[in-house]
Amino acid sequence: MLGFFLFSLFFTLLCLLFYFPKRQRQAPWWVKIDTQKPTCTYYFGPFDSAKEANQTKPGFVEDLEQEGAKGIVVFVSQCDPQNLTICEEDE
User: Fold this and answer.
1) What 3-state DSSP class applies to 88?
2) Which residues, in sequence order, are bridge partners of residue 73?
3) Among 4, 30, 40, 85, which has the highest number of CB atoms less than 10 A from its own CB?
4) 29-40: per-residue pLDDT in tens?
């Protein structure tokens, strides 16, 4: 009887470990940059925190400016982009 009780306890603990709803993982942080010319959206990341994403913004903006991009608007948000570069010409 004691063996059955220990087995049941062990089985219950295993079930709780594997089937208990896990805490949902938050979406990673991304730097989203929209440009007017060319009309594109760029995603840079993923980052573990908003602070880390914000620290990288200047480098990404500088790279796009050197490539001739105009009308640059920068956002930092938690998301899960399907495409990292989306340009009007691609659509």
Assistant:
1) helix
2) 34
3) 30
4) 999 999 999 999
Q: Residue 31 phi/psi, 5° resolution?
A: -95, 120
**68 φ/ψ sector (left φ>0, alpha ψ -120 to 50, else beta):** left
* Widest CA span in the chain: 78
> Within 10 A of 33 (CB to CB), how many other CB atoms are there?
20
Evaluate whether 44 touches 23 at the Cβ level (below 8 Å): no
Are the C-beta atoms of residues 60 and 33 closer than 8 Å to each other? Answer: yes
Query: What residues contact residue 44 under an 8 Å CB cut-off, 6+ apart?
Result: 30, 31, 33, 56, 60, 84
- Rounded CA-CA distance 43/81 in Å is 7
Q: Token digits for 26?
A: 């938050």
- Our separate counts of H helices and E strands in the chain read 2, 4
* pTM confidence score: 0.70
Residues contacting residue 4 through CB under 8 Å, at least 6 positions apart: none
